[in-house]
Amino acid sequence: MRAEVIAVGTELLLGQIENSNAAVIGEALARAGVDCVRHTAVGDNEERIAAAISEAIERVEVVVITGGLGPTQDDVTREAIARAAARPLRRDELVAAGIRARFERFGRAMPEMNLRQADVPEGGAVIDNPIGTAPGLLVEHRGRLIWALPGVPSEMRRMLEESVIPDLTRRARGATIVSRVVRVAGMSESAVAEALGPLWVRAPKATTIAFLAGGGEVRVRITTKALGETPASGALDDAEAGVRAALGAAVVGVGDETLERAVGRLLGERGWSLGCAESLTGGLIGGRMTTVPGASGYFRGSIVAYSAAMKGEALGVDPALLQRPVSAEVAEAMARGARSRIGCDVGLAATGVAGPAEQSAPVGTVFLAVDGPRGGRVREVRLPGERETVRALAVAAALNLLRLYLMEEI
To answer: 379: domain range?
Structure first.
């Protein structure tokens, strides 16, 4: 069973709000075993909404619409469904009575305009909205299902989970679609894709692999469809094992196992503490480490030594080295300084040029260093992008260097 999601609202097209409803619906459809093949956003225009519905029912078995069920003149989803299905609208007096009762319950006068929410395409079913005035709709047309839900996120979610998903789960006859994300660091998206080429070819037809790069990592999303969660989970296990075998130590973890979580886990396993010396990152490494609950058990803190003078004063870097502040030698001295001044087992340092102008080295030149019980390591990286991108990538590269150090992979 395939589905499309149509999000209604001119504000979506103008970029005034994000289309978060479509993401929620897409995830829920996957859990129900329904393949979501397209998301569409359309403005508050009856003719265009009707056209979007008519096109969708030519491609898929299920259309889920969100938005446009309110009482005002620009809420025309009901009319659009009626037009697409070639059915007249009929007022459901039971629904109208419920709307009136809701206003009375709150001691408010009901504008007559609200009764538009009781209009239903002939032959359609009304979906109860327990927390709002706009009921949902279900219209079966030419063997297709057209669901319409309010655009208010809380109302949409409630009706989706209580009405739409249970019904579609029954119709999907036990099928389920599940995904797993494997996080990879230290490799480009194309390098990851190339390494996983053989796995891509061998993967069963029901299993797909996709790639998304950003923030200094590549996320490999594995998705499979099966009859039941147990066989689906088994298929994901097999695919994940293939990814790990192909990528080795570049695999950071699965799901929410981010770089900072992986580093924290490895430090905890060894009973080691961490301190950072940050220049171009300006405290971002420490900030990222402390997003993990319980980080105080292994993270001591960061010294932000942005200027050359502060590198000498706060970290004890030899003034002679500071003639070239962006260098491997300075990064190594900063890591040693963090370890001694903060009093921790492992020191992690980052220095470089984030831009926009060159400062003794080309923009994007970054030196990272680790100093700890297994000696010191230093790495030079060249990072692309504008200032904030370079800084964010430097944080990810530093944490990955530390992760590999803790794993004894470097």
So the answer is: 259-406
